[in-house]
Every structure is written in C-alpha cells, then in structure tokens.
Specification:
InterPro entries: Dimeric_a/b-barrel, EthD_dom. By secondary structure, this protein is α+β, with helices and mostly antiparallel strands. The protein contains three helices and four strands, in the order E-H-E-E-H-H-E. It is 33% helix and 19% strand. Helix 1 (18-37) runs antiparallel to helix 3.
C-alpha cells in the first residue's frame, strides 16, 4: 500500500501570540493527540509555522491568516481513515476539541488529502 499525504491548515485564536500558539501546539496539543491516537497516529506530522512578517506573502485574498500548515503522512488510505475515525471516537473527540478550543479557531480548520505526486526539477543556467 502506498503512503497517503494530507495537509492540515490551522489558525490561532486572536488572543494568542504566534509564540504562545506554537508553544502550546508543540508542548501540549501534539503530545496529547499522539497519546490518544497511538497506534493510529500518522507516520509523520511535519509542522510549518508561517512567518507573516516576512513580507513574502503573495495572493488575494491574503493567505496570511494561516498560522500552521502541517504535512501529515499515513501508511495508507486505510490507515488515514482509521486515524480520522479514532480522532472522532466518543471520549477522544471531546478531549481533543476541548484542548483545541484553548488555542485554535476551530471554525477555520481545513484538512485536505493529496492525490498523486509529480516532482519536476529544472536545470539552472550558471
């Protein structure tokens, strides 16, 4: 079975600084979810925190309201479905949602499973 990758977009509560958001995510939320979902936790969960002050934001509407983009890899489509179901199980869902309400704008959460991968490189002229 081929691995499946998904993107997760998260937005912090406006009452938190970016540092508070990141610290809570890394020190509290991720360990909590991992403990609740193990062994249904994904293979990898790579988190990219946006740098809104970099001046390198292009697009309209502005994508700068996203605070975190996570790249999540599962062993297979079946493993992804099992992880998502485990997250929604009675008891687990309530614990995760209560924790998320402390630092996330849950109304803006987006989860997108990705399709095929096409990687191309171009030679640079020197």
């Amino acid at each position: 079975m081929a691995p499946v990758t998904a993107l997760l977009f998260r937005h912090r509560l406006p009452t938190l600084t970016t540092t508070q958001f990141r610290d809570y995510m890394e020190d509290t939320h991720v360990p909590l979810v991992k403990s609740l979902l193990s062994p249904k936790h994904p293979l990898t969960h790579t988190r990219y925190y946006t740098n809104k002050d970099s001046g390198h934001v292009i697009g309209s509407p502005s994508p700068t309201d996203v605070d975190l983009i996570a790249v999540i890899t599962f062993e297979s489509e079946e493993a992804m479905q099992q992880s998502l179901q485990a997250r929604q199980a009675d008891g687990t869902r309530e614990i995760i949602e209560a924790d998320e309400s402390k630092f996330l704008d849950r109304s803006k959460v987006q989860f997108v499973a990705l399709g095929g991968v096409d990687v191309r490189t171009s030679a640079r002229e020197e």
